[in-house]
Amino acid sequence: MDPSLADLSQAFVAGSWIETARTFPVRSPATGTLLAEVADCSAKEARAAIEAAVQIFPAWQSATPYLRSDLLRKWREAILSHAEALARTMAQEMGKPLAEGRREILYAASFIDWYAEEAKRIYGETVPSQHPQKRIFVCYAPVGPVYGITPWNFPAAMVTRKVAPALAAGCPFVLKPAEESPLTALFLAKLWEESGGWPATFQVLPSSDPEALSAPFLDDPRIRKLTFTGSTPIGKRLYARSAATLKRVSLELGGGAPFLVFADADLGKATDGAITAKFRNGGQSCVAANAFYLQKEIAPAFLRLFAEKVASLRLGDPLEEATQVGPLVNAQGLAKVAELVADGRSRGAKTLLGGPIRGLFFPPTLLTEVPPDARILEEETFGPVAPLCLFESEEEALAAALRGRAGLAAYLWTLDLGRAFRFAEEIPYGIVGVNDALPSTAQAPFGGVRESGLGREGGKWGLAEYLEPQYLSLGLG
Ligand code: NAP
Fold first, then answer.
1. Residue 107: which domain range?
2. What is the CB neighbour count within 10 angstroms for residue 297?
3. Which of 60, 333, 313 is nearest to 178 (CA)?
4. What's the rounded Cα separation, in Å, for the pair 281 and 101?
5. One of 93, 100, 180, 286 is an active-site residue; which one?
6. Of the four listed, 29, 59, 99, 399, which is most buried by Cβ atoms within 10 Å?
7. pLDDT tens across 370-428, in order?
8. For atom 8 of ligand 1, which residue has the closest CA?
9. Would you say residue 225 lies in a domain?
């Protein structure tokens, strides 16, 4: 049976569902309705979670990979059998349209599937020695207890993308979910428990004071790894604080992807791709296209097609089947989008499509004639606004792709293979989608360079983040 939202109000610490001294409200961004009063964890619960994670670590790392794999597989099955309820939970707590929520659950489950397999393939190596009486072996050990912090924009996938490889590697995981989306994370923890997941291997501590909650984890040397997905400024602070205990650190930070369309692109596919890259999750995705650069000769045709498709997007209640764009997650998010649009317009940008803002609903918006100094071209918008600029030469396109300091994703639309490779090799981005607006997948490395972070999630790279090589030198006497 699916839990009600009110059933998802306790924290999951040391294998028990607990109340805390205080609670915080979780509200629907679409209606403002109170969905649940959730346990508000503090340093006290953090310390209890650390002790429990440290205590379970030796047993969990010694459990056979086959057992860990089996539990992960059961967790995946449980998630898929509650997919509809999970999608509804996300729609209610952070406004993701149902159809997108269903796709996110499949994506979230695909990481568990992948790492349930990979758990059994954490192979060691032997290395030839120059000494006849020595043998060199390399084994892989789990890094130890992990602390993870996730954002609200993909409340299920950002969790499983971290937790599944950690559990597969033998690391207990303590999660602080985002304040806007703790219910999905608690739902996932319930399903882990119901699948036979060992107590304290996966703990979830919601909190309205992320700094106070995080301090014990960051300062405790027994927590061996921090994995964070969120904004670049917070990521930098957490990185600095982790230095004192020399933790392994993975940071999946802000994006700001350029979307470049060359004159030889297939415009039907490029405009479909532009819709996905810009308006998925209302633009609130780290790999969302931030600014569009169109080669001059195809710009009018691209704009005509793109504007038709944008105008047909259905903005509305995330729980309605037909909705394609839901509300923004909160008032700060909306204010930032509105501010960037106002800045662009004050510098001369024109609104080709747009409309009135209602509550947290920001209408899909197209801005043309955006001048190069507009902030929206460089700052991550995190909303359903597409600023469009023109370029003439490949050099201008390259300069556009190189502006800013983000390095997560970039998109190129061209049928010229030589150009695609030239660009991909010259631009500093962790992910390059060539004629592909949705490159993320469980078996590939997801992550950024420059101000977009450190480390990768997905595939063998995502598992390596939770493993330490141990070199064993054997003298044969
Ligand atoms: P954020 O403010 O950095 O929040 C992310 C998480 O960090 C939340 O759980 C938040 O808790 C927590 N947090 C905030 N301040 C903290 C502190 N002082 N100490 C410890 N934790 C703290 O980011 P956001 O605006 O919610 O999320 C959007 C950002 O995430 C965007 O920049 C986006 O690009 C990035 N993102 C990156 C990826 C990627 O894979 N590269 C994926 C998704 C999102 P509260 O909720 O309580 O504030």
1. 5-253+452-475
2. 12
3. 333
4. 9
5. 286
6. 29
7. 999 999 999 999 999 999 999 999 999 999 999 889 999 999 999 999 999 999 999 99
8. 178
9. yes
